[in-house]
Design brief:
The chain is built from 11 helices and 10 strands. By secondary structure, the chain is an alpha/beta fold. Bound molecules: 5'-O-[(R)-(carboxyoxy)(hydroxy)phosphoryl]adenosine (KG4) and zinc ion. 5'-O-[(R)-(carboxyoxy)(hydroxy)phosphoryl]adenosine binds next to helix 5 and helix 6.
Length: 342
Amino acid sequence: MRILAIESSCDETAASVSLDGRTILSDVVYSQADMHALYGGVVPEIASRKHIEKISLVADQALKAANLTMADIDAVAATCAPGLIDALLVGANFAKACAQALDKPFIPVHHIRGHVAANYIAFPDLKPPFIALVASGGHTVILDVQDYTRFAVVGTTRDDAAGEAFDKTARMLGLPYPGGASLDKLAREGKPGTYRLPRAGVSGAPYDFSFSGLKTAAVNLIHNAQQKGEEICREDLALEIATAVADTVVPRVVEAARERGYTAVAAAGGVAANSILRGMLQARCEKAGLSLYLPPLKLCGDNGSMIACQAYYEYLAGNTAPADQNCYATMPAGEDLCRVEA
Ligand code: KG4
Ligand code: ZN
């Protein structure tokens, strides 16, 4: 089955064609990051306008790269939640229009489920159940992936995502948006012990996290140093920020797998590209006897392939939707998208 999938939840306009889910025939990503970098973060209005400009072109390129035409497509999918609502609507409306014109099914896909599915593309042997960590600019969540379309949220952030903490502190250190990757590069040159930032937990919710305190503590540390005319060692601070995130996330992920008797852990999302987080996940999973699945960096950030792959499993589960399918800015990954208003 060939699925054309569209991803437009944030600042990437992406399209991909999958064959029976895990085989990716094409993957086209148009990144708007340069445009938003002027403002130090994503400007929703600019994002949706750029999606409108690029969506047809990107979908055409995905078909061409797969050596296919629209007539060869068996279903059309799009990310319908969560994300910037206007940005989501551009991709979903484009995909619904294609599906209607072709008289083929439309498959709405949850963005976080898509991030998890990046692992199915990278690792053909991976099957649920397993624990997934999805860490991105907007989300930090531990999921119990019970089946391809059955998810339970084990833990989530109560405020900022880990990526938000990276991006805001990177900005304070003068790094361009999106700062996570640049901060990661600096951290690799840093030495431990110079700074100490908080590792917060949530009372009564052992799997939940809070990153706003970490972000504020790092920002205050930078401000205080600036006011006193003191030099900040950016490398050492970057290492402490990344270590604080990894220290918060990794033990919870390992414990979630251990508690359920699962043998596998998968990571996904832009922040899963972080070298300190990857290193700590590798060390702790190995110690706990867990198989760890870490997709290549290209599949960690937003892309159409992960949506095209997850769409196949949603289709097999009967999760197709009529033309009045809506989009949602927020939605837990456990909810079935196309049944929300049923
Ligand atoms: O998954 P993604 O591409 O988009 C969302 O769904 O949000 O994630 C983007 C986030 C940004 O916050 C970016 O700074 C962060 O992933 N990121 C990183 C790294 N590469 C990207 N954070 C830390 N270390 C990295 N190497
Ligand atoms: Zn994402």
